[in-house]
Specification:
heterodimer; A: 342 residues; alpha/beta; Rossmann fold; eight-stranded mixed beta sheet; four-stranded antiparallel beta sheet; B: 322 residues; 34% helix
């Protein structure tokens, strides 16, 4: 996919994530720990992941619920402070910026679109104010007429009418609300959008409208996307690069075309097998045996080994590190040792 | 399709209304279909199309002020839509089981799994407590819960989402119903678990000869599990037919657009087919065909006259093009 890039000469990735981790302390209360001798418990929601997103491209993170993909998104935009590792946006390490004043210039350049368009818009605000809020917060425009023009332009950009600015969110359908969320995210002229399951609350026909809109906007404005989804067919449609996450780690990170054509990690393969296929009516999907283990007590070695048909003793004891392959990297002993069929 | 016997369920001209202060909203408008024994009928459509309402009307669980305003629902040739509450309660569970979207809200968090299963079994059969418990264990094993005997006395919160949905399926099967209304049974689950649950539903239907009305917005699930598909739009049936014909040779412009809107792997298309606009609100359903403002092929007749279901190839389609 050739995306015309306004900053094509700038070849450094826009976002560089290195060894990012985020732990949550889910220990019982102190008293219970003392009285009942219960140990501390740490949930490693994100456990050392690294990736780059080149300018104007889309990187998607896929995985089942609880694999940590939303936590990654929240760490990047600064809603969670990372436990370790670094997030560099356009060369600036933003993971250590703690005060709001220092974060503000970066925040203007990265925005987020949330999953639930019913919960992410303030029901008491008119659409105009919802969209104008980032412009006001970053003091981008101060005159009323300019603000009005900008909001009208944003509304038209996402396929709504300027007159819709006077309405309240409840007057819109789910798809239209998601358009309002997108207009709000675009209000501060960002270069980078983090989209956390932007279409999973929508019907397929509306999902198609939103996905088409997002691709059009990316082309017109040269946006870079981090796209979070559990739906592999949507990811296939949207992405240049795909990272498959399992229990807080990246199992496989590849160019999208290569990943879907020649998946390497056994988890990716099984995930691809479970995609419903409209071309084969009545096909029995290979049901992936078992379930995702608890992230509080992940299995030793490779976290996927209890469900993996190719696991051997090494997989049960030694955690696989990502190994570079032609178009990405894969964290799997079996792939590294060429034990995988096909 | 050959129909050797009477259909198990027949829905004839079903209308569901919601009286409101500003007039009556017709949420389901003249919907007719049938389900044969052992058949899986998929019902698809966008949110608000009336899929779940139709399912709820069949099990007699329409939430007031919604009410069946017309039409008949027949189970085995006998009307069940006008039965008194107590009689309907006996049919519900015994003849018609239900599986809902969210497995956590369909289970009582305060009772153990065994207690909920035993209660359901004893309501509908005259088993003793001991027999019912044995049957409960059998059911949990049938739906594939590992170490079922140890987990019988667990509480719903001790199960994962996929396991809870298995328990709900076990509950629905408890009295060997002949029809199961499954309303978005896999929507709250991860894809890999989804595949397991669909495989399980199909296997059970096959083994017990249970018919299923599978309500979902996920065409992938339909393609995999259904024998026939009904496409609903704005409370009306747009198209109904064998699954392969509806998915690959959809006649109705709405079902056709719906199929094109689904991103598929290997299609390589840069843009998804897009149906512009949105489904009309119930207060603003246009005259004639409800789809006409969004339809690329609409002509004069579509604006004036409402199409009725008529045969087009193996499908039945409500569209003036046929």
């Amino acid at each position: 996919m050739a995306v015309p890039q306004p900053v094509a000469d700038d070849t450094a990735p826009l976002l560089r994530v290195r060894d990012l981790s985020r732990y949550f302390d889910v220990s019982p209360p102190l008293l219970n720990r003392l009285v009942e001798r219960r140990p501390r418990r740490i949930l490693k929601a994100v456990d050392g992941i690294s990736f780059d997103i080149p300018r104007g491209k889309t990187l998607s993170l896929v995985g089942e619920s609880g694999c940590g993909k939303s936590t990654v998104a929240r760490c990047i935009v600064g809603l969670h402070a990372p436990t370790g590792g670094s997030v560099a946006f356009d060369g600036n390490d933003i993971s250590r910026l703690r005060d709001r004043a220092a974060q503000a210039p970066i925040r203007r350049r990265m925005q987020m679109i949330f999953q639930d368009p019913y919960a992410s818009l303030n029901p008491r605000w008119r659409v105009f104010n919802i969209i104008a809020e980032p412009i006001r917060a970053f003091r981008l425009l101060t005159d009323t007429a300019g603000l009005q023009r900008r909001v009208d332009e944003l509304l038209r950009h996402v396929g709504l009418a300027p007159a819709d600015g006077a309405k309240f969110p409840h007057e819109f359908s789910g798809g239209q609300r998601q358009r309002i969320s997108i207009a709000r995210a675009l209000a501060s002229n960002p270069e980078f959008l983090v989209c956390d399951e932007p279409t999973s609350a929508l019907d397929v026909s509306v999902q198609a409208q939103i996905l088409n809109l997002m691709k059009d906007l990316q082309r017109e404005l040269g946006l870079t996307y981090l796209f979070i989804s559990h739906d592999l067919s949507v990811v296939h449609h949207m992405s240049d690069y795909v990272g498959v996450m399992y229990l807080g780690r990246i199992a496989e990170l590849r160019e999208a075309k290569a990943l879907f054509a020649r998946p390497s990690h056994p988890y990716t393969r099984l995930l691809l097998d479970t995609i419903p296929d409209l071309r084969h009516i009545g096909r029995q999907r290979a049901p992936l045996a078992g379930e995702v283990p608890s992230p509080i007590k992940p299995p030793p070695g490779c976290a996927f080994h209890p469900r993996c048909p190719f696991a051997d003793d090494r997989c049960r004891t030694e955690r696989p590190e990502p190994v570079e392959v032609a178009d990405g990297r894969v964290a799997c002993h079996a792939a590294a040792e060429n034990r995988l069929p096909g | 399709m050959g129909r050797p016997n009477l259909p198990l369920l027949e829905v004839k001209h079903l209308c569901i209304e919601f009286p409101t202060r500003r007039g009556t909203l017709v949420a389901v408008d003249d919907v007719s279909f049938h389900i044969d024994p052992g058949e899986v009928l998929g019902v698809v459509g966008e949110s608000g199309a009336g899929k779940s309402l139709t399912g709820n009307a069949i099990i007699g669980l329409l939430e007031p002020p919604g009410r069946v305003a017309g039409g008949e629902i027949l189970l085995d040739g006998k009307r069940i839509d006008n039965l008194p509450y107590e009689q309907m309660q006996r049919i519900r569970g015994k003849d018609i089981g239900a599986i809902f979207q969210d497995p956590l809200t369909s289970l009582n968090p305060l009772y153990s799994i065994s207690r909920q299963l035993v209660e359901t079994i004893q309501t509908h059969t005259d088993m003793t407590a001991r027999q019912a418990r044995a049957r409960a264990l059998e059911l949990l094993q049938a739906v594939g819960i590992p170490a079922a005997d140890e987990r019988l006395d667990s509480y719903p919160h001790e199960f994962s989402g996929g396991m809870r949905q298995r328990v709900v399926i076990a509950l629905a099967l408890a009295a060997n119903p002949r029809l199961i209304i499954a309303d978005e049974p896999t929507t709250a689950l991860d894809v890999s678990i989804q595949a397991q649950i669909i495989a399980l539903l199909k296997k059970l239907c096959h083994e017990f000869g249970t018919a299923v009305m599978l309500v979902t917005h996920d065409m992938g699930v339909i393609a995999e599990a259904a024998d026939r598909v009904a496409v609903m739009y704005a409370g009306r049936l747009a198209e109904i037919g064998p699954v392969a014909d509806v998915i690959h040779h959809a006649r109705h412009p709405y079902s056709h657009g719906l199929m094109g809107a689904i991103p598929t792997i290997g299609s390589g298309t840069a843009r998804l087919t897009q149906i512009d606009g949105a489904m009309p609100r119930l207060t603003e359903i246009p005259s004639g065909c409800a789809f006409n403002p969004r339809c690329p092929k609409a002509f004069d007749r579509c604006l004036a006259e409402r199409p009725v279901l008529r045969a087009a190839g193996p499908n039945e389609v409500a569209c003036w093009l046929y």
